[in-house]
Structure formats: structure tokens, C-alpha cells
């Protein structure tokens, strides 16, 4: 038996929607899974593409397979079925703000669901993903696709405690030989942690990802943020986000409206010290200097820049690259489509 799991890249925040909105983009993490009767007890992993020199091939250390085992264990299946081999092909660069970890987590949830024949609903799969990746923007967009807004429900006291267990209990360090049944009970996700809605997306809008050739971990980029914000900054973002969620679905898109609605005061200003050239790139590429540009922001936790545009892709990317080069940062760039979510075939 064999099947293929495919999960798209995502860009979170889109300016003002910090931890709220995400967009699925046409770069993919793909798992080719084969199950052979009488095969080895421990899954055999192979890997090509982005992250090939970093991703562990030990299934008890690799993020995707550890998430799959978590899903299986929560559903009464204490170890991987035998005879599994998984070939990973990855187009999503690690630690660049394009949702590589969210894609790996969703791939793990889908893998656990398929291996255990669990028939989990989309909502339940989101619960599992949120036990691992605790902000919903990337995982929701990777799961359902498109331009998506999500929130975490206010849970009662016991569900809050269940959803806040340390990650080390959800994805424990497995012992060297974990191929035997792994006995401890895993923390079950509460039901209905995350809720989402898909917004319209105007088909003519493409996403240019300008990807610096260095990694910035989400943990480090989140550590740069303050604990609290002024009312002025919160209102600044809420006003823009309210407009943006509708403006990106209108045809033809209104560049003046979108450019202003993609500004942010909650995360980008604090992350500029981690990304040389960030303010200059954001300020130098505008609808008046670049025909076709609609808006520009940091993609997720960075360092990638996301420019939304209807034309003029090369000039936007080349000029942003030139600004980064002045700051000693080399980049790759790609023009991407907003795509559908994950699939299992
Ligand atoms: N396909 C994968 N297989 C195994 N581990 C992965 C995979 N993709 C990502 N990871 C893990 O996730 C880490 C990157 O996660 P991180 O949250 O820092 O950045 P990101 O998800 O790429 O960016 P962002 O969350 O801002 O969009 C990698 O260093 C690696 O440990
Ligand atoms: N909303 C998250 C996305 C990164 O995963 C952040 O900006 O930290």
C-alpha cells in the first residue's frame, strides 16, 4: 500500500494579523509513504530538498514522525505499524517565515491519521496540530488552504490546562530504542481549540517571496516581542486587519487601500534588529515606485519578505534584493500562487 501526503508552505500575519491570518503558498512538503507487509519495525525515512542536511532521519527525532506517533498514541495505538518507509521531498526552506514547521506538523497529523485509519475530522486534526504549534495562523492555512483567519477558543480551566501542557510532554524525547510500545499516556488535546474562516482572495494577486539566505528561528523572533502593547498600536493593527481581510478579495485590487492596510505596529518594528535592511526594504518598495505592487510585509516571523502584486514581479524582487545586498544579505526569490490546502492521495 502506498499514499502521498502534500502540505503547502504558508505565510502568517500579512502585516497586521499577527498570530491571526495565514496564506497557503505553492511550495510543498511531500511525503511518499509505502507500507510493506513484514517490513522493519521502525519506519525508514529518506529525505531530499530543503532542510535535507538538518532534518533527522530517526523517526523518534524527526518532527513529522514524532507528531504522527503522538496522534497514534492519543488514539490507543502505542507504536508505529511495521513496514513503513517514508520518502520526504521538501520545497519549503527552514526557518525563513514560510511555515516549514507548521507544514511538518500538519504532515505528521495527516500521517498519524492515515496510518491509524483514524478518520479524524479537519477540526480534530487542527486540535492535534495546535498541541504542537501553539499559534493557529500557519497550521490552519496549511490544513485548509487559501487566505484564512483563526482564533483559539477560550477554554474552561481544565481544558486550558490540558492545552497548555509543556511541549516536552506532547512530543517527548523517546529513548534510544523506542521501537517497543511506548507506555506513558500522552496528553489528549481538548476538542475545538481552534476555529477558522476562509476569506476571499482575488485571483490576480500573486505573492513574491523574497527569501534571505539565513535562518531565523520563530522562537528567537518571538522572544524579541514585548509582553504588552499600547492601545494606539492595537487599534492601528485592528483597523488595518479589518480592512485587509476584505480588500484582498476585491477585484480589481485597490493598491492604495491594501498598501496601508498591510502596515503593522505589533511585530515588524521589534524584529528589525534581527533582519538587516528590513525597514528600508519595506519603505522603498511602494505602489508609487513599483507598478503592480499592492502591499509588502514580513512573512511570518521572518526573515522572508512577502510582496503582494498583480504585475512587475521581477522589478519588485530585484529592487528588494538590491536593498538587502547593501546590508550584506543575499536572497532568493520566487513568485508563488495562493493555493489549496493539504491533501492525501
Ligand atoms: N520537513 C521538516 N522535517 C523535520 N523538521 C522540520 C521540517 N520543517 C521544519 N522543521 C523544523 O522546524 C524548524 C523551523 O521552524 P521555525 O518555526 O523556526 O520556522 P518556520 O516554520 O520555517 O517559520 P515561520 O513559523 O515563521 O513561518 C526547523 O529548523 C526544523 O527543526
Ligand atoms: N504569527 C507567528 C508566525 C510564525 O510562525 C509569528 O509571527 O511569530
Automatic annotation (TrEMBL):
Catalytic reactions of this protein: L-homoserine + ATP = O-phospho-L-homoserine + ADP + H(+)
Species this protein is from: Serendipita indica (strain DSM 11827)
UniProt name for this protein: Homoserine kinase
Signal peptide: none
The keyword DNA damage belongs to this UniProt entry's keyword annotation: no
HAMAP family: Homoser_kinase
EC number: 2.7.1.39
PANTHER family associated with the record: HOMOSERINE KINASE, HOMOSERINE/4-DIPHOSPHOCYTIDYL-2-C-METHYL-D-ERYTHRITOL KINASE
Pathway listed: Amino-acid biosynthesis; L-threonine biosynthesis; L-threonine from L-aspartate: step 4/5
Domain spans labelled GHMP kinase C-terminal: 254-312
Keywords: Amino-acid biosynthesis, ATP-binding, Kinase, Nucleotide-binding, Threonine biosynthesis, Transferase
Source taxonomy: Eukaryota, Fungi, Dikarya, Basidiomycota, Agaricomycotina
Pfam families registered for this protein in UniProt: GHMP_kinases_C, GHMP_kinases_N
Example of a GO biological process term: threonine biosynthetic process
Domain GHMP kinase N-terminal: 62-146
Enzyme's top EC category: transferase
Bilayer-crossing regions: none
UniProt-recorded Gene Ontology molecular function terms: ATP binding; homoserine kinase activity
Family of the protein in this entry: Belongs to the GHMP kinase family. Homoserine kinase subfamily.
